[in-house]
Amino acid sequence: MMNNRYGKLASLVYHLDKPVGRSFGDVEYYLERLRGVSGPVLEPAVGTGRMLIPLLQAGLDVSGFDISQEMLDYCQRELELRSLTARLELAGFTDYRVDRPVEAIVVPAGSFQLLDSFEQGLLALRRFHASLKVGGRLLLDLDPVAAIVNVQPGLRTWSAPPHGLITLNATPLEKDYCAQLTREMHRYELWEHGVLLETQLEQFSLRWWGVQEMRMALEQVGFTEISVSGGYQYGKTPQDTDGIISFEAYKRQD
């Protein structure tokens, strides 16, 4: 059984639910924040290319990695459909490689919260800092705590061309307030004409971070000039009603 790895059916659901270019306000936000960047950009947990491809189309030099080969396969196909190229690596937050220091690292849509412990998060932040060139920036999104704690799992469905149906049944497993962690069991099923063809089980975990906790973690690994914005409005103080919290931090010295 996999944990946060997005296997075959989970990747197909992601591809159907969050197609390339679909924006939650983040595509426009990152394009604006990266305006003027000419050096390499890295996107961890790149998925199927929802963010990577619009950044490439805007002229940025972007590469990405993901722990799911199935997600990377979708991303590669989407690149080829648009005659685009990008370096993609099968890797996780703490074991990816870069062949040159990057100017920016972007982690949109709360992907960082797939790391299910504080220690893993801190290790990833250290890797990010080491991967940036001096003067480079980390741009990272977090879901608000309430968006994770108050989620109500249930049944969702997607049409799967040419004539199939995918269902996702999410069952809560635990909510660990001390570890700041929620766990669910995701059961994906592929149906065709009412016949069950395939089932996939994945354990799905998310860790929530407090705003000041993340700020202190960034400072601990060496980041400076840390700004926090709410609702994809740069410089806006985050409020409880904001759907996302964005951090931006600089590396000023090795």
Report the CATH C-level class of the largest domain.
Alpha Beta
How many beta-strand runs? Answer: 12
Structure class: alpha/beta
Instruction: Estimate the strand proportion.
Output: 35-45%
**What average pLDDT do the residues reach?**
95
Give structural notes:
The protein has 254 residues and is α/β, with parallel strands linked by helices. The chain folds into two domains: 2-144 and 210-250, Vaccinia Virus protein VP39 (Rossmann fold), CATH 3.40.50.150; 147-207. The protein has seven helices and twelve strands. A seven-stranded mixed β-sheet has the order 4-3-2-5-6-12-11. Strands 1-10-9-8-7 form a five-stranded mixed β-sheet, covered by helices on one side. Strand 3 (61-66), helix 4 (69-81) and strand 4 (88-90) form a beta-alpha-beta unit.
Please tag this protein with its features.
254 residues; 12 strands; Class I SAM-dependent methyltransferase
Topology:
Elements: E1 2-3, H1 8-17, H2 26-33, E2 40-43, H3 52-57, E3 61-66, H4 69-81, E4 88-90, E5 102-107, H5 118-131, E6 132-142, H6 145-149, E7 155-160, E8 164-176, E9 181-192, E10 195-207, H7 211-220, E11 224-230, E12 245-250
Parallel strand pairs: 1-10, 2-3, 2-5, 3-4, 5-6
Antiparallel strand pairs: 6-12, 7-8, 8-9, 9-10, 11-12
Protein name: Class I SAM-dependent methyltransferase
Keywords: Methyltransferase, Transferase
InterPro entries: Methyltransf_25 (IPR041698), SAM-dependent_MTases_sf (IPR029063)
